[in-house]
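Structure ticket #2291
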Amino acid sequence: MKNESKQFNVEVASITDRGLSEKRPVNEDSFLADSGRCIFAVADGVGGAESGEVASRTAVEVLDEAFRHHKDGEDVEDLMEIAIQRANASIHQMSREHAKLSMMATTFVGLHLDSYRATIGHVGDSRLYRLDVDGKIHRETDDHSVVEEEVRAGRMTEEQAINHPNRNIISRALGAEPGVEADMKTIDVEDGTVFLLCSDGITRHVPDEELRTLLLDAQRGGELQPICDELKRRCYERGAEDNLTAVIIRLGAPTSSANTISLDDERTLSSPPASLAATMSGDVPRQHAATPPPSNSIPTNGAVVSAASLKIDLPGDQVVMPQTSKVHRKSFASTLAKLLGVLLLLSAASVLAFYAGRQYERRQTVALNNDDVLPSPSIPPPLPTETPRSAFQERLREVDSSPREAIERMKTEKNERPQSSTDPQFLYLYGRALMNDGQMPEARSMFRQSLNLVKERKAPGANPNPNSELIASVERDLSSNEPSVLQNASKALEELVQHEQSVPQNSPPAATTTMQN
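Resolution: structure written out below.
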């Protein structure tokens, strides 16, 4: 499809499929692909059965309706953010009023093109990629997920995050709470830019570099629909564990500039590969048959928006990565000046080091020659000791990287009765391991027990009392059953317990009040 009504051309293609997992019999993804009004979106529903599909479909319908009444001159970013907030309120209200829709929610990523300005809105772990005219791929959204936030905080490596058991737990979604914070931004783009909006059913099987190679083919003039079909084929080849949805948009005429990037970047798809014939014709193997488009698809100027489910595998399925600017060639003079500056700094450092060494030698000589100064025995410096704070942070990293192993290890430490501990740090770490393992009620109970111990430590000489507002915040969050709210309680409680000294193992048990959820 092409939009000729404006001063630029837009082509779009899309694919959606339920995948191969028997745990996901219904496609809970939804998407919007309207090249006429240049509005696009992907939503990945959460909640299972009918509810995830309802949540994701509601999100794209509200966005579609908002832009039907869009007038020239209106602030597009404000309009999209208002639509996201309306969708969130609508989904949350339905989940409270209808039992079968309880706990439903959805991720969301939206794109609007107005001439050469792109407006992006995002909540959850569905993504938007941009391939610029130099052939560089940029992820314009950061996942709002538990493991990605741990990576950004430096408590987990990217390698650990890839295979972490909780990589599908999201920390933000439409409908999960009465209000939601959406990431919004507007960027300038050029002719030849290619966009990809997709759910995590795509990104869990196709890494960024493979996505770049496929989008390069689109940038060079390749047909968009075969590229969408190739994305589906690769997901199926690798298990297709989740519903998968992709929308590819090409802005302006194809460009040949990307051909100069690398000799290894050969054309990915000039025509549909023979191995794709069955997939592209719809004749998938019977056991892998794709779900037919639902009856409640949204027609949009020739584009069809299939209802899909938002994925949040409760309990729990973002930092927006800054747009990478173009790299300009630096002049030879500028480079030479910087090189000379570095050499001067190195020379100055060498002179200072030499002077400091000579001064040290003189002091040593004076001390040895002074008869009034008795030589003192050489005392080796004390070995570095691990502070309680660093020990706690180390245990925290162990819990986040391998929660199941941490649970078993901590059970063994306490003779299968970890809840009998009187150490608030131990109870918090055990609760966090349970939370990371998906055992939310048990985690909430451990967090309450840890908080009670922190509150009771008011003896003279103990650490200063924690902030009362922070305690009240933890107590309030622990009363909620929402997984994302429990995550908030965990972060606040971490701040409280890391100031506590561990109680020796032979200390008498403190009186505690345990609340079971």
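Closing remark: The first strand starts at residue 10 and ends at 17.
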